[in-house]
Amino acid sequence: MKLLEGKTLSNEIxxxxxxxxxxxxxxxxxxxxxxxxxxxxxxxxxxxxxRKIKVCDRLGIKTDLINPGEDKGxxxxxxxxxxxxxxxxxxxxxxxxxxxxxYENIKTWDAFGARKDVDGLSSLSMGKLFIAKNMDEIxxxxxxVPCTALAVIKIIKKxxxxxxxxxxxxxxxxxxxxxxxxxxxxxxxxxxxxxHSKTKDIVSIFExxxxxxxxxxxxxxxxxxxxxxxxxxxxxxTNIDENGRMCGDVDFENVKDKARxxxxxxxxxxxxxxxxLIENVVKAAERNMEESR
Length: 293
Ligand code: NAP
Known about the structure:
Low-confidence stretches: none
Bound molecules: NADP nicotinamide-adenine-dinucleotide phosphate
Radius of gyration: 19 Å
Oligomer: single chain
Structural class: alpha/beta
Order of helices and strands: EHHEHEHEHHHHEHEHEEEEHEH
């Protein structure tokens, strides 16, 4: 089994940004800036928020952590996002999930505009992603791609896993991971089965797949007997087990001797997602710099 660890790739991406960040600082006389909206301090994403801020601090990117206040309601939130959109000192915005009930919809993702939407959730970014025909158009387009989906593609490329003509099962069809990922894998000539909670006989789909990517959020549910021979496994899931430890959707200890290669959790997709987000923040700031000239 080959371990597809993500920390090295994450560091490579982050280290490649220093020069670009300096250019932005010189060009617009301020550091690139990211506003992070986080409603719930005790949510599972709180730990990732701290990591994002730490890495941004290290690289010289300014961050603001904002809780708009659930008690102020949804209309206030939309107005608040509009204010962020109009604020020229903010290059990028990241909305942490979960949001208060009823807030997670396209109206929210569109409220601050595609230019600052570094997680690629706005309808404009999504539309451009799904129209793009190949990875070249996707990676070099004037829009952002959801960071977790992009991180999986970067891991596949980093480890030179050939997916042309491969059968890939993606478990989980959310708009931040499964759907954009399925589209990108298809554009790389893989044949994708996009599975979800209503998929019939998911095990037979898994058994016939060259690669399984799980983004479901169910601790250690994928076992060795669900895999065919020589299967690559990418685990997007981030769960907390009954002992309070972070784990993936894949039962790593059970699967590792059967899989051809596998990402660990923690230390796999997560750090690369973070690096993709920061790279998108720099891209947003560069675009602001170009347009202010
Ligand atoms: P989500 O919006 O809750 O979506 C979960 C998906 O899993 C849904 O499409 C659901 O199907 C599907 N599903 C549920 N039970 C299933 C089953 N038994 N078999 C097959 N599919 C099933 O979750 P998400 O936001 O995409 O996140 C998924 C996981 O990835 C979570 O653990 C999250 O923490 C993790 N994550 C990690 C990163 C990272 O950087 N590593 C980033 C983002 C998310 P239906 O559509 O039918 O309900």
